[in-house]
Amino acid sequence: MEGVFHFILTTSFYASIVGIVILLLKVLLKNKLSPKWHYLIWSVLLLKLLIPFGPESTVSFFNVLPRVEPQNITQSMTLIEQHSTALPVETDKNEITYEVPVQQQVNADKAPFDIKAILPYLWAASTFFMLLWLFLTYYSLFRKLHKGSSIQDERILAILETCKQRLGVNRTVTLVLQDVIEAPALFGAIKPKILLTPAVINLNEKQLEYILLHELAHYKRRDILTNYLLLAFQAIHWFNPVLWYCFKRIRQDMEVATDERALLTLAQTDHKDYGKTLLALLEELSTPKLAPRLLGMADNKKDMERRIRMIKMVDFFKHKRNHTIAIGVICIVILGGLFLTNGKSTEDNLNDSDINSTALATYDAASLFKHKSLYIGDASNAGDLVGKLPFNNYRNGMSLATESEPYGITVNYDFTGKDIDTDRMSSIFQDHACIMFALIKNLDEITFNTLGTDDPQPYEYSRAELQKVFDTDLWSYSRNSSTFTKFINDLSFKVLICPGSYTPAMSSTQGIHLSAASPLPVGKVIYSTENGVFLSWDGKASEGFTTIEMPYGASVCWSAFNQDGQIYEGESNIITVTLLNIEGKPLSEKSLTILYDGGFYNVQPSPGVELDGSVLSAERKPTNIEDAVRNALRDKGDGYLHDECKTEGHLILDTVEKDGIITVYTIASTGWFGFENGIFTKVSGSGAIPSVMIFSKNDKGEYDLLEYKLPEDGEGYGDSLKELFPKKLHNKVFYADKLYPELMKMQEEQATRYLQSIGRKAKVTAEHVDKKLADINVQASNKLTAEYTKYDELLNNCPYWLGTREQIEDGIRYTYQKSQSKTSDGYDLIAFSKATEDGIIVEERYYKIVGSDPQLVDAPK
Prior knowledge:
It is a single chain. The chain has 27 helices and 35 strands. By secondary structure, it is an alpha+beta fold. It is extended and about 115 Å long. Helices cover about 35% and strands about 25% of the residues. The strands form eight sheets. It has a six-stranded antiparallel β-sheet with strand order 15-23-22-21-17-19, with no helix packed on it. Mean pLDDT is about 80; it is low at about 70-115, about 285-290 and about 345-360. It starts with a helix and ends with a strand.
């Protein structure tokens, strides 16, 4: 029930946005749309209510809105209760969280005063009674109308037949004389009846004609089905006043559009009399009896005035028919594109191509953190959380166990037809479990069932067992967003090992090979061991070390032989792997244990330790096309001026595979980011370049770059593009610059992640940063920036503009600055300096500008 209720809340919220936009649009296009199109525009809202979630689209309006988590709609009510007994938990300065006492969570899903748990049932009960009331009143009206008599007056029947012919109605429509409904109305979708009162049948023929035309126009337009749909939506969304108001406006527009349809069958001279008939019916109409909303010609006074005004404009819209059709169609197409689609998903779910490439899988910590909850009983929240984890594309249902402790969740996956590395799958599911235990406090057990694998075993995890490998309580890792982000980064950091079990008697390998993998930008990796030694591995063993620093991507080999040549046979050995960023500062650290048992050294399973045969090579090869393109682009970036963070952005336009050779057509960009004037900006690199990459693919699914093709510069650019790319891609590659903003965004996101990894906050942009040049003699400026820099490293490293740039040298960050001031005797003074992060000046130069001659002087006092 909770899942249905949260689905309805989400639908209602999004539909309200659509309704408000339509209301605003109708105000803007008040007299530019005919009544028919004012009514048809509402179809977008009805479709949104019927089909809340459409295909993902980059043009969807919901891309600009934060994702609505249904559980948040009722979260505030829950927090009111929780805070009454909550205990404050220490967090960052700007964050406040509360922890509910343990005894309160034990029966969390059965809390007698849990408003959040009661709301779904309150909604369901109210909806049921509203639908029941509609059915009973409709049935009561149906019974009462049976007492009425069919009209057999030939005069009236002849008018009815004439009206049916005008509107093209071929079905039998019964006229019923009754006194239940006090105004003409249409009743029944299967056997339609037009309800007339004794006062109406005494009207003259023209007035009867107008009334019957109006009711038949309702039938012809199938408005009665729309009305039933609105009644159902009102019962379901009874809590939403925005939608109720929209439904009211839909009915008003329906009546006006029906008037227009009827009037189009009449001569212009009849329009005034049609309006008078409306007014006459309004005068006779009294307060309607309690009954479901029927479709009738009469209306309230305010709406009637609007209908009379429309009657006067029927001829205007008739002459502007093509114009109004064009505007109406454009409005519906645009509204449909904006509101009947979903925003692009930002989750990093694994797709088919990278299902076995999870060592570098990333998790969106901020998105996951939104699903922090005290209770697993919130099914919608649990489902959304699982949906943001890898393998979601293969999810095949889930179930919750919330009746009694231990509380648990079972998630089913179907991998039929997929080539799955079960060893790697185990590691990923273990990460899933750690994340879920950290975010859901009363969750005790997790089971992941896998179908379609060679060994469809369940992967079962308990909080108690996983807790043993963590220093602190798993729930505490989500006490605030920054703590959880670090937890995710540490969890995503993998130590890849091969083989998992080793004995010196094995001749095929010198020991246990290790390598590190992380989604963070890593510079180097430090391996240290309590016992045994590390051998760097480049095809042969090197001298053994107990601590060794290696480039990221290179592997090392742990040997059980100590530096003195004696074999270590102790019970256990601890190996620590530390990631360093490009500045040489620690990013993350992970330890693993090697147990000795009867001649074998076995790596103890633990979170973040994965068996991976690829570490036997010094450099792992990509196993999916995205990583292959990414690696090729990063290598291409080495050809540009280096700075602090290398980035790339690419869009794969098409791939062609033949005989193990894959040709990839892309538009790509590479670049280096660095600090200029305190802004982390793209300091070198390329724009949007059409590129063709050709890869080979071996039996292991690994990609090797064979060729990287670029179009020719200059006059041959266009012809070379035509040769490199198939004709169907020409429109894109000839206008590649239009895609550069998207490529810039990708590079900015990578640069932002780099800053997060080094704990630095700054504006990030791939666009040009405005720079101010020194206001001095041009010849003097040229000497400083072009001539003197050849012989002075400080001047060469300082910016050519007035401002700062940063540079990392041997792991130490320095700030180079160029500034302009005046000497005591009025000359321009240009200063160059190099300083450490704490502001200590390491080196400086001062040049006094005398005409066109820069003169080196001492520092001003």
